[in-house]
Recover the amino acids of this structure.
């Protein structure tokens, strides 16, 4: 009797739970009568807004100080072209920063791949496009090596990529004997046109490359499973591993993306200047890191965005351009950049310290 | 004396469980350097059963559940799932086998929002796109089931209270539809009385759904309120398995600390 009662009681309980479960399945399939409660969240978006405000402020200030040259369409297109290579490589670096890694070898990788590309075209007479393909694939291999050494042996990326920085710079010098390689292609060649021409005779092609690559990267980061895993890897690697995320693979792929984008950047450079110096990209890693950091991607991983990096690159580009227009000594430029970087980190730290 | 009786097995379970066990461990050993964390542990968990796993600090509880959940691999011993010998190479393997774990540190990513955390590692996609709408809707629904007071599934987890964070971690484990065993490491340690009660209710609910639950807790009152069987570890050895009906807190405490100390 007692037993029976218990049975019915537990049966009722099970029924209730089953009902709940059915409700869950239904709402899952139909996307829910229970609309999720939303609230505008987000330090992430707030952070982007800060960067956007800073960029807008800088723009207005320079437009006023260096009027009318700075805000002219020609000058702005020039700035856009000037930042495109920086922004493309910084896009890869954003993946790495979000995954809480860093690649110090990007400047050397970019330089090494530029001379490799020039070498392939001029010395081995490769079709330029095939040469670009090989260059980008070689970039992927470099990223793969970085990523494998870092993840498989547990050596900090800072150290491994510092080594790679030195190796690739030396390789570029060895390959060229220290001399720049000139790349002569017949005028109107499709490679030159598509990497460095102007669409409708106005908009530099580099800008399209930059925007296209950043759109794809932003899409991957925010809308795909891989993107989520990049954020999780950098946010809390232990948690990510516990939930079954292959964090090592995520990191390796991020390194490969970064180095492959160095290859794309190298192609844009060779297309534009028709030559490749073995010293290309020396010290460039600092500008790239600056763009990412100014763009609001924290060095602690787990957050950040491609939009932020674009804004960060734009801020750097406007400073360089604006100082020239204002007739400020070129020697002051690194000082200004350094100040901006420290300021960006300072703002970020202050925001972080403020209670939520 | 107590030690000896447990070793002969006389003192362990009186009757074999009715249903065939979901998971069975035999002779599990695990060492970290010179520290023998587990030595020849065997026990099994049946569907719809709540196991209270107790023991002093360093008794090997966490190591044991990390082995069951695939985070560690045992040095020796076998794991049977549904009677088949199984090796978990990763937590993912265990997850596929129907084992979900709520870790003591909760394994949350603070910078991400509630929905992203609930679906961490098994995001819903449509084609290559994340199905964000469905993840938001399902997350909200699961949390409602838990009657949690999380304001929005788009809130960053780092901004939540300890209890809310616990709810997110539990929601994640529960929401793994195929989860047949949910492991909880100190699920109520950081919670207030009311929230603890909610979690204990939730454990009973999981049981009613036919899922097995392993709960690690230092709080014997909680263990007695939910567990069907209580498994006691001491210094890496399994020193007793008791049905709740056949034991009391004093008995369990005696097993935890070792009779010779009383």
């Amino acid at each position: 009797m007692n037993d029976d009662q218990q049975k019915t009681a537990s049966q009722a309980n099970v029924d209730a739970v089953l009902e709940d479960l059915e409700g869950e399945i239904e709402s899952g399939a139909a996307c829910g009568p229970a609309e999720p409660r939303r609230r505008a969240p987000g330090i992430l978006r707030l952070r982007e807004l800060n960067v956007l405000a800073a960029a807008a402020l800088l723009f207005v200030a320079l437009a006023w100080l260096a009027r009318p040259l700075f805000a002219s369409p020609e000058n702005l297109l020039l700035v856009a072209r000037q930042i495109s290579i920086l922004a493309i490589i910084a896009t890869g670096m954003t993946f790495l920063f979000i995954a809480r890694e860093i690649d110090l070898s990007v400047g050397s990788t970019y330089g090494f791949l530029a001379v490799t590309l020039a070498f392939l075209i001029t010395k081995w007479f490769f079709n330029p496009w095939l040469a670009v393909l090989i260059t980008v694939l070689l970039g992927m291999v470099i990223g793969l090596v970085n990523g494998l050494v870092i993840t498989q042996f547990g050596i900090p990326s800072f150290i491994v990529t510092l080594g790679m920085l030195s190796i690739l710079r030396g390789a570029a010098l060895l390959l060229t004997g220290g001399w720049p390689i000139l790349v002569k292609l017949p005028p109107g060649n499709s490679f030159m046109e598509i990497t460095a021409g102007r669409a409708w005779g106005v908009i530099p092609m580099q800008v399209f490359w930059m925007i296209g690559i950043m759109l794809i990267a932003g899409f991957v980061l925010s809308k795909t499973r891989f993107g989520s895993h990049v954020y999780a890897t950098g946010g809390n690697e232990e948690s990510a591993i516990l939930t079954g995320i292959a964090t090592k693979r995520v990191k390796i792929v991020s390194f490969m993306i970064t180095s492959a984008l160095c290859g794309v950047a190298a192609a844009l450079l060779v297309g534009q200047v028709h030559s490749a110096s073995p010293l290309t990209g020396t010290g460039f890693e600092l500008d790239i890191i600056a763009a990412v950091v100014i763009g609001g991607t924290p060095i602690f991983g787990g957050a950040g965005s491609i939009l932020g990096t674009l804004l960060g690159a734009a801020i750097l580009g406007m400073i360089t351009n604006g100082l020239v227009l204002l007739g400020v000594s070129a020697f002051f430029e690194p000082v200004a950049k350094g100040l901006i970087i420290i300021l960006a980190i300072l703002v970020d730290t202050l925001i972080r310290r403020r209670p939520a | 004396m107590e030690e000896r009786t447990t070793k002969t097995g006389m003192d362990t379970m009186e009757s074999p469980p009715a249903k065939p066990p979901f998971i069975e461990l035999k002779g599990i050993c695990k060492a970290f350097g010179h520290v023998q964390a587990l030595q020849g542990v065997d026990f099994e968990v049946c569907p719809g059963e709540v196991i209270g796993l107790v023991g002093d600090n360093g008794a090997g509880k966490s190591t044991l559940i990390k082995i069951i959940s695939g985070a560690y691999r045992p040095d020796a011993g076998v794991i049977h799932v549904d009677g088949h010998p199984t090796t978990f190479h990763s937590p993912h393997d265990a997850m596929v086998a129907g084992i979900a774990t709520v870790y003591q540190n909760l394994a949350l990513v603070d910078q991400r929002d509630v929905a992203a955390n609930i679906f961490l590692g098994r995001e819903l996609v449509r084609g290559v796109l994340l199905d964000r709408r469905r993840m938001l809707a399902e997350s909200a629904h699961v949390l409602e089931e838990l009657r949690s007071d999380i304001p929005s599934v788009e809130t960053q987890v780092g901004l939540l209270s300890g209890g809310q964070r616990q709810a997110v971690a539990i929601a994640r484990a529960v929401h793994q539809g195929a989860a047949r065993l949910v492991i909880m490491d100190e699920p109520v340690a950081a919670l207030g009385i009311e929230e603890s009660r909610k979690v204990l209710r939730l454990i009973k609910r999981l049981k009613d759904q036919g899922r097995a639950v392993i709960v690690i807790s230092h709080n014997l009152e909680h263990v007695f309120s939910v567990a069907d069987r209580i498994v006691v570890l001491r210094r890496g050895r399994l020193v007793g398995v008791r049905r709740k009906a056949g034991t009391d807190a004093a008995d369990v405490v005696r097993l935890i600390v070792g009779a010779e100390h009383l």
